[in-house]
Amino acid sequence: ISIMRIDLKVFVLPFILLNAPATTQASEPVAVVRSLVSLVKSFEGASASDRRVAAAKIHGLLDIEGLAQRSLLEVWGKLNASKQSSFVALFRELLAKVAYPQSAKFFKSLELEYEDAGSLGDKHNVLLSVTHPDEGLIEIEFLIEPKSQKVHDISIDGVSLALDIRAQMQKIVAEESFEALEAKMKKRIVDAG
Predict the structure, then answer these.
(1) Closest Cα partner for 128 from 2, 12, 1?
(2) Which of 7, 72, 115, 150 would bridge 63 by S-S if both were Cys, CB 3.0 to 4.6 A apart?
(3) Distance CA 53, CA 42 (A)
């Protein structure tokens, strides 16, 4: 799966809960997911300005900086603070321009079931099952960092989003360069319009 292609099953699953039923006593992790749902729903038919506002709020619910750091591994440590910040901003823009709008369209009318599954190691686990007309049954696991209440990782049918992104980024950096990775991300943003 190419990071520049932004495969829907990889990048959109933080937002798969678009039609989650309400509960009166949702846990904080489920509330985090509910916030994602509401914000992603707002992308459909929204103005560019409203999308920017929603994207900024979504960014606050995802551990994007941690994901960037875990994906770049030793390259992250070689970047100065300004370059790290610039890369995180680029990653956020890629998500806002490509993943969030695709998520709103792809998952807007799905039926799903979710479960607050409690702790998994040092993270809180929210499980989801959704049946998509084209993809069939998809099982999604959201890992939420208890202190920050941010989504740390998502696994789709047992495949970790964080590990997949890391593998893609590491491949580009190893075969080309960090600068090539940035250039490919920027091109994908431009192509998305």
Answers:
(1) 12
(2) 150
(3) 10
Q: Which two tokens stand for residue 163?
A: 């590990």
Rounded to the nearest 10 degrees, what angle do helices 178-192 and 161-175 cross at?
120
Residue type for position 61: L
**pLDDT tens digits for range 92-117:** 999 999 888 887 876 677 776 778 88
Is there a contact between 15 and 142 (Cβ–Cβ < 8 Å)?
A: no
Q: Is the pTM of this model over 0.85?
A: no
Greatest Cα pair distance in the chain? 51
The residue type found at 45 is G
pLDDT at 157 over 80: yes
**What pLDDT was estimated at residue 107?**
66
12 touches 62 (CB < 8 A) = no
Contact call for residues 124 and 143 (beta carbons, < 8 A): yes
Q: Where on the phi/psi map is residue 12: left (φ > 0), alpha (ψ -120 to 50), or beta?
A: alpha
Check: CB of residue 156 under 8 Å from CB of residue 7: no
Under DSSP, the state recorded for 15 is G
Taking the C-alpha atoms of residue 58 and residue 187, their distance in angstroms, rounded to an integer, is 23
Q: In this structure, are residues 8 and 102 in contact, taking their beta carbons and an 8 Å threshold?
A: yes
